[in-house]
Write a sequence for this structure.
């Protein structure tokens, strides 16, 4: 992540309380993310336990994977409250990362998911000021200005201010906990 | 000095500071790091990637590895993951590795930790599992983390944390015989919602909490994560200290902390437990609370007793009281959390019969100690819901697909309510089974 980076991509919209069992079902936790080929496999199963009616809102029943079985065509997730609640499995942000998700915009996050996303440097977890999961539609073309914390919906032309990243911005900018700890002298480089 | 809560005091001491305030970002020293077969391989990968293939853990006496999730399965990947833990424990000469297939094998990590003397008041325990918060029952700061954080701790013994504000829940009165700690925590989660304690500590207090035994206090703290809590905590009393001192084989000293009388609470709620009723959490969220009286008669296909929150000896004693001399009407699975509890099923008696005899005579099936079907797991996992069926369970989560099949419907309830329901095949108030 750099100060000027923008993310361009289509939105995939989910509802409230998307838990980590929905993001990556427990049966796939036998895959070891430390092995690159197995890391890639997580992409295939990302969001595979989200109930179909809640997949790709507002319509629902929109598959997360379309052309490629590992990587989704969507780059930005838009969700409601308490995204990533439940288990501490880091496999959840890993699965989203492996599927090509670069940022999530939710009303707020469950604590461990948020930490894992930031400290692992997998994706950028923004919080929104409005309930964007009721406004943005799956498939909308989004442009996310990371440094400015602003979301442009190119499909509708509307712009939304997001919550600044705050305390975790330096960790995200560094690329995760390890590079950040080296920067601040907690770890020898 | 400013008044602090128990959680703030532990965090301040572990950051080398005289005081901390909610919202402070601090680096803390870790007393125990725990990992298991599901998150251990990834954690070890992060550790080796960043500290080097030949790196040593920061303190091998502070690392505890407890395989427990996918143990009794033919799944080759699951078994491979235990092999990774075994190789790491050997390479690092870790003294606290509870290996599968040995005398030391324990089962569910959150129960194994206190049984084996790894929980002490005033300490910081981090684990790669969200239910690490269970150990707050011993008056320590215990919370779940991911692989990256755990890999960092393995190499440094430190981690940054944001100090949470504390919510206080006070339980007064005498707990009726038809209620258990599970009813109390499901009531709390129903009241504040599954995000009601996000980024917060939850402290439990009151005469009704101190009337609970240690296992029941663990049930209370176990499920704070289901309200989004960072940690749950109960200040130690003599019962806590007696339990800890019996198990603390290393004799490691510890410092008991308590919240100051004028500590700042972000929220406070008082319950009279004598007025509470048996509750369930309906599908598909632990905060989807209903009184048993509201859902009484709902048809069930299966009953499940097990996990870190519902697979302790207290849970089985309660269930066995109702199942004694009766027969279950639906498939009923009993999974002791640990090998010590499994032994207890063979030695604890009701009216001259062991708990195991009571369960088997009632028609229940008993599995090996592990996490088993609480989180689904490989398809050959004992008790896993492999079809779209309806199950009442003493476990802690009922998210879509959590226990296996994505269309399965899971009701969370106390061991008493689960046992009463197993006897009828539909959701049943334990008061009806007690008559």
């Amino acid at each position: 992540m750099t100060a000027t980076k923008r993310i361009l991509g289509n939105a995939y919209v989910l509802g409230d309380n998307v838990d980590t069992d929905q993001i990556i079902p427990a049966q796939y936790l036998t895959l070891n993310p430390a092995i690159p080929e197995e890391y890639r496999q997580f992409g295939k199963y990302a969001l595979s336990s989200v109930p179909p009616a809640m997949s790709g809102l507002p319509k629902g029943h929109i598959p997360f994977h379309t052309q490629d079985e590992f990587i989704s065509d969507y780059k930005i997730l838009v969700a409601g409250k308490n995204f990533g609640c439940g288990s501490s499995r880091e496999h959840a942000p890993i699965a989203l990362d492996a599927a090509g998700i670069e940022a999530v915009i939710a009303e707020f996050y469950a604590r461990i998911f948020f930490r894992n996303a930031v400290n692992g440097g997998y994706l950028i977890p923004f919080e929104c000021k409005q309930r964007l999961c009721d406004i943005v539609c799956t498939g909308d073309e989004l442009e996310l200005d990371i440094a400015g914390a602003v979301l442009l919906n190119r499909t509708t032309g509307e712009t939304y201010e997001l919550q600044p990243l705050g305390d975790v911005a330096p960790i995200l900018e560094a690329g995760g906990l390890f590079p950040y700890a080296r920067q601040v002298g907690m770890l020898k480089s | 000095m400013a008044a602090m809560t128990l959680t703030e005091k532990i965090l301040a001491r572990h950051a080398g500071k005289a005081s901390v305030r909610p919202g402070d970002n601090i680096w803390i020293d870790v007393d125990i790091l725990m990992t298991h077969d599901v998150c251990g391989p990834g954690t070890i990968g992060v550790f080796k990637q960043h500290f080097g293939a030949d790196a040593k853990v920061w303190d091998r006496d502070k690392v505890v590895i407890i395989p427990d999730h996918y143990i009794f399965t033919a799944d080759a990947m699951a078994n491979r993951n235990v092999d990774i833990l075994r190789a790491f424990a050997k390479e690092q000469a870790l003294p606290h590795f509870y290996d599968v297939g040995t005398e030391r094998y324990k089962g569910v990590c959150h129960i194994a930790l206190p049984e084996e003397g790894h929980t002490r008041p005033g300490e910081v325990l981090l684990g790669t599992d969200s239910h690490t918060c269970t150990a707050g029952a011993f008056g320590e700061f215990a919370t779940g983390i991911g692989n990256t954080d755990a890999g960092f701790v393995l190499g440094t013994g430190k981690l940054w944390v944001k100090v949470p504000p504390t919510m206080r829940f006070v339980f007064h009165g005498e707990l009726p015989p038809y209620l258990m700690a599970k009813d109390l925590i499901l009531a709390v989660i129903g009241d504040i919602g599954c995000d009601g304690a996000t980024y917060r500590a939850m402290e439990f207090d009151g005469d009704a909490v101190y009337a609970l035994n240690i296992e029941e206090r663990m049930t209370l703290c176990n499920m704070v994560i289901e309200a989004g809590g960072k940690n749950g905590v109960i200040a130690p009393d003599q019962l806590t200290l007696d339990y800890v001192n019996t198990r603390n084989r290393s004799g490691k000293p510890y410092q008991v902390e308590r919240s100051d009388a004028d500590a700042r609470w972000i929220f406070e709620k008082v319950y009279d437990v004598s007025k509470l009723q048996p509750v369930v959490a309906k599908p598909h969220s632990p905060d989807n609370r209903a009184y048993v009286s509201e859902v009484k008669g709902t048809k069930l296909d299966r009953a499940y007793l097990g996990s870190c929150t519902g697979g302790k000896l207290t849970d089985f004693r309660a269930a066995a009281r109702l199942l004694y001399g009766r027969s279950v009407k639906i498939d009923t699975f009993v999974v002791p959390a640990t090998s010590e509890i499994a032994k207890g099923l063979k030695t604890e008696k009701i009216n001259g019969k062991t708990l195991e005899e009571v369960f088997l005579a009632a028609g229940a099936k008993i599995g090996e100690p592990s996490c088993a079907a609480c989180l689904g797991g490989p398809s050959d996992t004992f008790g896993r819901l492999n079809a779209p069926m309806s199950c009442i369970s003493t476990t802690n989560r009922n998210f879509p697909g959590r226990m296996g099949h994505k269309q399965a419907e899971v009701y969370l309830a106390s061991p008493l309510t689960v046992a009463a329901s197993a006897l009828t095949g539909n959701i049943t108030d334990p008061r009806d089974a007690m008559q």
The mean pLDDT of chain A is 96. Residues 6-164 of chain A form a domain with the Aconitase; domain 4 fold (CATH 3.20.19.10). The longest helix of chain A spans residues 36-45.
